Amino acid sequence: SVVSDQSRTVPSSAAEATTWPDASMRPGMPDPAKIPPGPLDGLVVIDLTRVRWQNMAQERGVVVRVDSDFAPDLPNVLGAESEVRDAMTNLMLNAVDALPDGGVITLRSRHNVRDSEVVIEIEDNGVGMSETVRSRCLEPFFTTKGERGTGLGLTMVFGMMQRHGGELEID
Question: What's the whole-model pTM score?
Answer without folding.
Answer: 0.75
